[in-house]
Structures are given as C-alpha cells and as structure tokens.
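Tokenised fold entry reproduced for absentees:

. . .
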Amino acid sequence: MTITRLLFREIFSRKGLFLSACLTLVIVCLVANFTRLAFMIYDQKTEAGIRIRSQELEKQMHEMEDEYRKITLRMGFNVYIFPKQEDKIDFFANDYAQFYMPESYANRLAESNIVTVNHLLPILQQKWKWPEHERTILLIGTKGQIPLSHGGKVTPLMQPVPDGKIVLGYELHKSLGYREGDTATIAGRSFIVHKTLPEKGTKDDITLWMPLKSAQELLDKKDLINGIMALQCNCGMGDIGRVREEIVKILPDTQIIEFSGQALARAEARARATEDAKKVLEHWNENRTTHRKEQGKLSLIILSCVLIGGIAIITFLTYQNVNERRIELSILKALGTRTTQLAALLLGKVALTGILGSLGGTVIALIILQNMDPSGFQTISQSLLTQITIQSLIVTPVCACLAAAIPILRGLRQDPADVLREQ
C-alpha cells in the first residue's frame, strides 16, 4: 500500500483529530493574516492621511511665509544708498543728502548681479519752500522702482507718481485744503493731486511727491539724484557688511546705511515663519515614526503569540496522536515498515493539515476584511494578496511539521519489542 493511500486512510480513520488540527491552523492563519493585512490597510490609510495633512500643512506654511513676506514688505525700504562725500552727521540732521550722484547709478546697480538687495528706488529729495503757499516742505521726486535685470517680477513697495500729478502728505493737504483731483500750482506749473495720504506721524506728513523728472527740473538737478532706497534680501539680512561690500564694488563713490529696526523686524518675521513651518513638520514626522514603531511592536506581539500558541497546540495534538498509536506503529515497524515511511506518513498528514489550514484561514481573513473595510481592502494590490497567500501556504505547513517533528521522532524511536512486551 502506498504512502498516499495510507495517508488518506489515516485521515478518514481519525477525522476528529485531523479536523481539530485543521481548525487550529485555520484560526492561527486567520488571526495572523487578518492582523497583517489590517495593519497594512491601517498603515496605508494613516500614511495617506498624514501625506494629505502634510501637504495641507506645507500649503499653510507657504501661505504663512507669504503673509510674513507681505508684512515685512509693508515695513518698507531698509537700506539707503547716498554719495560718499556726504557727512553722515549732516545726513541724519537733514534727513537727506546734500550731495548728488548720477541717476544712472540706479540703473547700473539694477543691471549688475547684485543679490543682497532688491526693490531699487532712485529719489531726489530736498527741503524746499513752496512759493505759492510760503510753506517749507520736503519735496521728493521718484520715478518708481527699477527691476533687477536678473530678478523676476516683484510687486513695488511704492507706486510711481504719474506724470503731471503729485501726492500730498496729511498735513499739507489738510492745512491747504487740497483734495484728490484738485489742481495745485507749484512754481508756476500746474499739477493734479493724484492722492492724499492719511496721517502717519512722520516727515511723510509734510512731504510732496512728484515724478523724478519734474523734481529735477524744479530743483535744477537734471539727471541727478541724492539717494537710492532698497530692500535687503533674505540672504543679506542681518549682514549689512556684506551689503556694503557688494554695493561699493559696483558704486565705489557711495555709502550705505541700514534702518536696523525695520531690517531686524523683517529678519525676525521671516525667521519665525520658517521656524514655525519646520517645527510643525518635524512634529508630524516624529509622530508618524513613533506611530509606526508602536504599530510594528503590537503586530509583532500578536503574531508571536499566535505562532507560539499554534505550535504548542500542534505539538500537543501530535504527541497525543503518536502516544495513542504506540502499539499500531510498533506493529507496523515489526511487519517491516520502515521508520522513514512512518515519519513521511505522519509528517505528510501534518503538512496537509497546514496547507488546508492556511488556505481556510487566509480566505476567511480576506472575506472578513473585505466586508469590514471595502475601501481599505481595495488599496491592497493583487500581487500583495498573492504574495501573502503563497507565504502562508509555505510557512504554515513548514511550522506545523517542525512543531510535530519532535513528538513524531520521539514516538518512532521506541523499540517495537519493548512496546509490545508491555502489552
């Protein structure tokens, strides 16, 4: 009689024990595969959720950084470039330079490869007596910002004054009664009031802005300016020495001052936005890593407990089976059946139990997961399901055979004569 026929006769003659072993392995594979797949689905969902949240967070951080950028831009210019021969004491006393430099300096700076400043604004300013009103005012001529040749398009910090128009500070338009759209006469020339400014509590309240060319004609300073206002870039923030070094290389007969309060506030705002973004993203990444570690530990504990429990039960059932059949096995050995044949018979039964148990457990686990979480189940690829099924079909019979090997070998090593003598 072949081993295969003996195997099936063995199964049918002891159906209860066979079904008990199959049920044990079904439960083991069910719990193991369910746990593994459930954690995979949960990990994928969690990862997708964190990815979406991270994207939203990054978007919020970019928006926050952009808002900080807008706030710092509203602080205005923080670098002032003026002629080198101007004494700084006189400059601070007058609030403007009394020496002049070519208007082309601003264009030369814009056409260079300068990286520490941007938003270049050439200006001509001077205290001047408005003859029609006998008022001393601060007259500023500007033609608007000059874009850097190597930079992209930027929103100007100060809009240029249109030709033939002026902008009046609060004290001027309030005391003189000008409104937007009115016509004002300046040194015999007519200008339309383009805009009236609200009260600022600074020298801007007594300032009159006009196009640079008009101011140059009025002050007889053709093609001349006495200052270039600029805004420090992030790369030069807090390092006025680097800014000076770069500008003086391009415009050697100039000097530079920094409005440190505005520059510091701008640097702190940018740094705070960047730091906040980094901290929140780091917090999310740390939570994600910790969560995965805890999930891995829990999965390992469950799988270990199930595997140990399954091995213990198979070992016990095999030991019980071999012990009850001591006489039968001894008779077969006495009749000439080889030990290897008997071992193959018993291990083959265990292997078949492992195959059926792994198939049953895997199928039930898939059915439960599909009904519990259809959307999550769809995220698992077919190749992964096939891989898990194949692994289960290999690992389960092997572990079952290893668990049964010791009691089987122990039972087959007994001498038939000793066993039969006891009976």
